[in-house]
């Protein structure tokens, strides 16, 4: 892909996300790409503005894929560390997909067919990833038996909502910062871990006999 074509895609993605498809002109895209506005340089790379939109959506999918790079470190052998990495990786993923998310909020209904495949790769994929991970932890007896699909929806839905409030609306509910949120999120997820049985008097007496 030529540098100029890539600049057109990146410039269009940012403009479409901020201004909407109809509110963005070809001249604006050309200017954002470092081309002469209104000179028709965009058409050396694309047949239409609609084709640029399709390429911008595809570019968003690629950027979202890069957000999974942090998760290549798994497993870590420590459940708290793994959950913390998943939470941080989720924020990286959402940040990488921010332009797509803004664009989908603006244009998802109008260009439903264009967004269908991207929705599967960008929006649905992290929910499946977390559900599969939770299921694997149940099979390994690292987590208690639960509904991994539903719990994944709850856990990732919490991150998604917090991300949306903090990134799209520039608001931190209850003035909770991201690191504090991640810590609480991990603590909540760890409630699924098997808990040791209560330390009863009989068990304490048994330990004392074995040690004597």
List keywords for this structure.
mainly alpha
Structural topology:
Layout: H1 3-19, H2 26-32, H3 49-66, H4 79-96, H5 98-107, H6 112-139, H7 148-168, H8 178-190, H9 201-211
Mean pLDDT: 88
Q: How many beta-strand runs?
A: 0
User: What low-confidence regions span 5 or more consecutive residues with pLDDT below 50?
Assistant: none
Radius of gyration: 23 Å
The span between the termini is 75 Å
Question: Concise description?
Answer:
The protein has 212 residues and is mainly alpha-helical. The chain has helices at 3-19, 26-32, 49-66, 79-96, 98-107, 112-139, 148-168, 178-190, 201-211. The longest helix has 28 residues, at 112-139.
Characterize the structure shown.
- With about 210 residues, this protein is mainly alpha-helical.
- Helix content is about 65%, strand content about 0%.
- It has nine helices and no strands.
- The model has no long low-confidence stretch (mean pLDDT about 90).
């Amino acid at each position: 892909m030529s540098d100029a074509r890539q600049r057109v895609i990146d410039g269009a993605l940012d403009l479409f996300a901020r201004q909407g498809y109809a509110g963005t002109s070809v001249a604006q895209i050309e200017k954002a790409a470092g081309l002469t506005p209104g000179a028709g340089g965009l058409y050396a790379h694309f047949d239409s503005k609609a084709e640029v939109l399709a390429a911008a959506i595809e570019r968003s999918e690629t950027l979202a894929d890069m957000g999974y790079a942090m998760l290549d470190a798994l497993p870590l052998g420590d459940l708290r560390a793994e959950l913390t990495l998943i939470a941080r990786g989720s924020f990286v993923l959402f940040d990488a997909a921010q332009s797509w998310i803004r664009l989908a909020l603006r244009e998802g209904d109008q260009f439903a067919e264009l967004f269908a495949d991207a929705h599967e790769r960008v929006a649905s994929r992290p929910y499946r990833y977390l559900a599969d991970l939770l299921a694997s932890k149940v099979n390994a007896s690292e987590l208690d038996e639960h509904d991994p699909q539903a719990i994944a929806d709850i856990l990732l839905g919490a991150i998604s909502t917090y991300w949306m409030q903090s990134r799209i609306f520039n608001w931190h509910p209850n003035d909770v910062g991201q690191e504090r949120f991640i810590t609480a999120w991990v603590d909540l997820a760890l409630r699924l871990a098997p808990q040791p049985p209560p330390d009863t008097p009989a068990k304490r007496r048994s330990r004392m006999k074995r040690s004597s």
